[in-house]
């Protein structure tokens, strides 16, 4: 642990909910309020979005708010955290497909405002592509809000154990725990890509507001380590302890070891 990292974790950063549904609806409402506030001020809002099972209900609620309560995404500019590499965008395991299926396909976001770090054969220089992804976020004034899940090994985005806290968007190797967790979705371990493009830890921590959502008993152990344990690159999510703009939104099961 570095000496100049201070733990700003306090009970105000914790939002505990009895059910995964309540936790997800809280997160959806926070996002919806931010979108609406910016809209009222005639401003766009830059959202960092996540994939995985955890945010599905959040997106479902945002779609409901769009369809039934006139929440507009016309002022939203989105940047997804990560994408497998290599993968075709029309592969139903790609995050491009996921985002279309659960959110973008059902709301009025301008397709040109959607950014997913997808690298295909048209991209000759991955490093240059990743730098352009970072530059685009910065040129828009940074992420207003970043939604995060957490991997069972403490990853955020695909920043696996060992990722530098100063890392930016780049090509990464997936950790065995991450690949094993994705096995059932892909059908077999061999089909799970070995690599991904991910925003870096540094990219994430610069967001003006960060909501980390963790649901279910299977996240309880890593939540306890990430929130109460040592701040170490071995558990990338532990860096969040040092940030005042982080809220941990947990259901009872995910919070069971920190109560
Ligand atoms: C995935 C994503 C992460 C996500 C995490 C947890 O691999 N790259 O952004 O937060 O793993 O996934 P889940 O929500 O399905 O548990």
Which characteristics define this entry?
259 residues, alpha/beta, Rossmann fold, seven-stranded parallel sheet, three-stranded antiparallel sheet, 32% helix, globular, binds 2-amino-2-deoxy-6-O-phosphono-alpha-D-glucopyranose
List the topology elements.
Blueprint: E1 14-17, H1 20-40, E2 45-49, H2 56-69, E3 76-80, E4 82-85, H3 95-102, E5 114-115, H4 126-139, E6 145-148, E7 170-173, H5 176-186, E8 195-198, H6 201-205, E9 210-214, H7 220-228, E10 246-251
Parallel strand pairs: 1-10, 2-3, 2-6, 3-5, 6-9, 9-10
Antiparallel strand pairs: 4-8, 7-8
The structure holds 2-amino-2-deoxy-6-O-phosphono-alpha-D-glucopyranose.
Residues 50-54, 81-82, 149-151, 157-158, 178 line the site of 2-amino-2-deoxy-6-O-phosphono-alpha-D-glucopyranose.
Question: Please, could you describe this protein's structure?
Answer:
This protein is of the alpha/beta class and about 260 residues long. The chain has one domain (about 10-250): Rossmann fold, CATH 3.40.50.1360. Helices cover about 30% and strands about 15% of the residues. It has seven helices and ten strands. The protein has helices spanning about 20-40, 55-70, 95-100, 125-140, 175-185, 200-205, 220-230, and strands at about 15, 45-50, 75-80, 80-85, 115, 145-150, 170-175, 195-200, 210-215, 245-250. The chain is globular. The model has no long low-confidence stretch (mean pLDDT about 95). Bound molecules: 2-amino-2-deoxy-6-O-phosphono-alpha-D-glucopyranose (GLP). The site of 2-amino-2-deoxy-6-O-phosphono-alpha-D-glucopyranose has 13 residues, from loops.
């Amino acid at each position: 642990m570095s000496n100049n990292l201070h733990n700003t974790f306090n009970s105000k950063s914790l939002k505990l909910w009895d059910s995964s549904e309540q936790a997800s609806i809280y997160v959806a409402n926070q996002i919806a309020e931010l979108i609406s506030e910016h809209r009222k001020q005639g401003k766009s809002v830059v959202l960092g979005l996540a994939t995985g099972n955890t945010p599905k209900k959040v997106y479902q609620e945002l779609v409901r708010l769009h369809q039934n309560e006139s929440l507009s995404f016309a002022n939203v500019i989105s940047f997804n955290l990560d994408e497998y590499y290599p993968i075709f965008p029309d592969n139903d395991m790609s995050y491009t497909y996921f985002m279309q299926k659960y959110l973008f396909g059902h709301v009025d976001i301008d397709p040109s405002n959607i950014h997913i770090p997808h690298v295909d054969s048209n991209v000759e220089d991955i490093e240059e592509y990743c730098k352009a992804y970072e530059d685009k976020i910065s040129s828009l004034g940074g992420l207003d809000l970043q939604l995060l899940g957490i991997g069972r090994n403490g990853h955020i985005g695909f920043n696996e154990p060992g990722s530098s806290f100063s890392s930016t968007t780049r090509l990464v190797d997936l950790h065995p725990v991450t690949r094993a967790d994705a096995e059932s979705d892909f059908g077999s371990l061999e089909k799970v890509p070995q690599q991904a493009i991910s925003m870096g830890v540094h990219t994430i921590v610069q967001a003006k507001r960060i909501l980390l959502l963790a649901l279910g008993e299977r996240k309880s152990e890593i939540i306890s380590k990430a929130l109460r344990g040592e701040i170490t690159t071995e558990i990338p999510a532990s860096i969040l302890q040092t940030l005042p703009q982080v809220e941990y939104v947990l259901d009872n099961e995910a919070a069971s070891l920190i109560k």
